[in-house]
């Protein structure tokens, strides 16, 4: 298990919901039609656009796929050292 | 294996990346008639509004293509396809043989009947650059600028949003309803009222328009019996598909390139995916041609699997989210009014409307305006092929 920080930029999020389709364990749409971040399906500590989550390699792969599916690059993924894993450019 | 891909948009590029994973030794070449590597068309409105910098609309770096050993030929149009002898000819005359060909050519825009300096479309990054340059010129003139938007679909809405942001006095010319295939009277009226409240002037039932010019420059639009001053016109009349291009090559074409669930066209070794195809959607029990990003990307992923020989099939409830001057609009699944036999209003309030579309008692689509809460439950009903039960 490794820790990842996941951040959704609500200004960029247009509510396309691709992330929710691909990784419903990590993303959920709120009433403003923006994606919030979940920790394994749970919103402990209340709704948020940013969370640190421990994930297996398989879970990370799904997360990256969800981030890649975002048409506005609104999802940012960082590893424990703070290095940005996605977008990777 | 020698794989050619026509179209370097999200579908073609996703497919190329997935093909590289599945077939490390294959030769993969993308033909892209634009002069750019992959960028997000969805980000173009954000770029226009100054929310993202130009460099940030790109989704892949040039290094990605070389690392993946994918040859990207930009500025190259695949002029024609010979499906019998299995080659594609490029606009500079060279012939490229293939073992497998993927058509990921997307949509073209439908053009207005005339052109002038100041008439704009919004499909490409170059289009967005052109709009920004025009706005800059007009601003330098220092006069109050009038703008016109022609059409009532997704792109027309993006023009309205952008012109609003630029503080242009805007008139909207509608040929029929907003989203004429999907919205009924009430949905249309809701958007109409909202746009008017935001200061947009609207003319409905505009059959055709005529441009008023000063030399090459647009100065006005004649429509509905009058003339509207306009130095910029945003055209959003929907798509144009070049049917002949495919038919000449012996590829069956209906409302898009006809493919089966494995994305195979009627021509052997030729696949098609993304916005250009009419795809048999198992969840909806209908042949669908979508124009949305998630669908095009998933097509890219699954067509690659099909080309590489996997039998995995795609199952996705497609959706499109947009907004008109702050009013959220979400459409999921099949929202063609003419193709369903039941449309139920499941929520209606001031400025809000939710309709669920059903076929044979099963939910196949939904439209949400100003209220998107039921999105998850509607999507779930479509996915599970059941009737939508209003939770309230
Ligand atoms: C301004 C704008 C905003 C949008 N907003 C949203 C949104 O908010 N949400 C959403 O879901 N979708 C949105 N879309 C739609 C989304 O961008 C498309 O559904 C998606 O890009 C389709 O991908 P594609 O790869 O199938 O086709 P395209 O992106 O159209 O790519 C096809 C490519 O093929 C190339 N091509 C075509 N013919 C040839 C040829 N003969 N030779 C060489 N190259 C060729 C074209 O140049 C093009 O680059 C928007 C589109 C636009 C234009
Ligand atoms: S995919 Fe991107 S734009 Fe769509 S809901 Fe998720 S974060 Fe928002």
Describe the structure.
The complex is a heterodimer of chains A (89) and B (392). With 89 residues, chain A is an alpha+beta fold. Chain A has one domain: Alpha-Beta Plaits (2-Layer Sandwich), CATH 3.30.70. In chain A, 19% of the residues lie in helices and 29% in strands. Chain A has two helices and six strands; from the N terminus they run βαβββαββ. Chain A has helices at residues 18-22, 57-68; strands at residues 2-8, 27-29, 35-37, 50-55, 75-78, 84-86. In chain A, a hairpin with a 5-residue loop joins β5 (75-78) and β6. The longest helix of chain A has 12 residues, at 57-68. Chain A starts with a strand and ends with a strand. By secondary structure, chain B is an alpha/beta fold. Chain B has three domains: 2-108 and 246-307, FAD/NAD(P)-binding domain (3-Layer(bba) Sandwich); 109-235, FAD/NAD(P)-binding domain (3-Layer(bba) Sandwich), CATH 3.50.50; 319-383, FAD/NAD-linked reductase, C-terminal dimerisation domain (Enolase-like, domain 1). Helices cover 24% and strands 31% of the residues of chain B. Chain B is built from nine helices and 26 strands. Chain B has helices at residues 10-22, 44-48, 62-67, 125-141, 154-165, 185-197, 243-247, 293-307, 375-383, and strands at 2-6, 27-32, 70-74, 78-82, 87-90, 95-97, 100-103, 108-109, 119-120, 146-150, 169-173, 201-203, 210-214, 217-223, 226-229, 232-235, 239-240, 257-258, 270-272, 277-281, 286-288, 319-324, 327-333, 342-349, 352-359, 362-369. In chain B, strands 3-2-1-7-19 form a five-stranded parallel sheet. In chain B, α6 links the parallel β11 and β12. The longest helix of chain B is centred in the middle third of the chain and has 17 residues, at 125-141. Chain B is globular and about 60 Å long. Chain A binds chain B through residues 11-12, 14-18, 20-21, 29, 31, 33, 69, 71-73, 89, and chain B through 10, 40, 42-43, 46, 51-52, 56, 58-61, 64, 293-294, 297-298, 316-317, 319-323, 328, 330, 372-373, 375-376.
